[in-house]
Amino acid sequence: MGELNMEGQYLIYGLAGIILLFLMIRLLKWPIKILINGIIGVVILYLANFIIANLGLIGINVNFSLAINPITALIAGFFGVPGVIVLIIIRLFL
Fold first, then answer.
1. 13, 14, 31, 93: least surrounded by Cβ within 10 Å?
2. 69: Cβ–Cβ under 8 A, 6 or more apart, which residues?
3. Which of 57, 55, 54, 42 shows the shortest CA–CA distance to 87?
4. Integer Cα distance of 21 and 9 in angstroms
5. Cα–Cα distance between 9 and 24 in angstroms, integer?
6. Whole-angstrom Cα distance, residue 90 to residue 33?
7. What does the alpha-carbon distance between residue 45 and residue 69 come to, in Å, rounded to a whole number?
8. Shortest CA distance to 91 belongs to which of 67, 55, 58, 61?
9. What is the end-to-end Cα distance of the chain in Å, rounded?
10. Helix-helix angle 6-53:70-93, to 10 degrees
11. Mapping DSSP to helix (H, G, I), strand (E, B) and coil, where does residue 36 land?
12. Burial status of residue 71 (CB atoms within 10 A of its CB: 0-12, 13-18, 19 or more)
């Protein structure tokens, strides 16, 4: 009476698999979000450096660039354009 038939075992394995998949997705959601924000930050920093480098073409002499490293990429990724503006201000005054 205590034994499950084959269909019952498949049902238990399926439910356990769904719960395990749900837990894995919940655990991986945060690191994937940080990775995506970092990639977006690198793109924003690259575009900012490209724009800064090309200001010399219109007569504005600017002699600096923003470093692209994990910290600045995450700042730019999390805060977007305001984060890049803060990085530029920090680079100019420090």
1. 93
2. none
3. 42
4. 18
5. 22
6. 26
7. 10
8. 67
9. 77
10. 20
11. helix
12. exposed
Which DSSP symbol is given to 69?
A: S
Asked if residue 44 lies in contact with residue 77, where contact means CB atoms within 8 angstroms, the answer is: yes
Q: Which residue has the higher pLDDT, 32 or 62?
A: 32
Asked whether the predicted pLDDT for residue 91 surpasses 80, the reply is yes
**What pLDDT score was predicted for residue 20?**
94
Across the range 55-84, mean pLDDT stands at 84
DSSP-derived secondary structure letter, 56: G
Give the C-alpha separation, 21 to 10, whole Å: 16
The residue with tokens 């399926």 is 14
- Both tokens assigned to 51: 């724009």
HSE-CB of 67 using CA atoms within 13 angstroms: 7
With beta carbons less than 8 A apart as the criterion, state whether 80 and 44 touch. yes
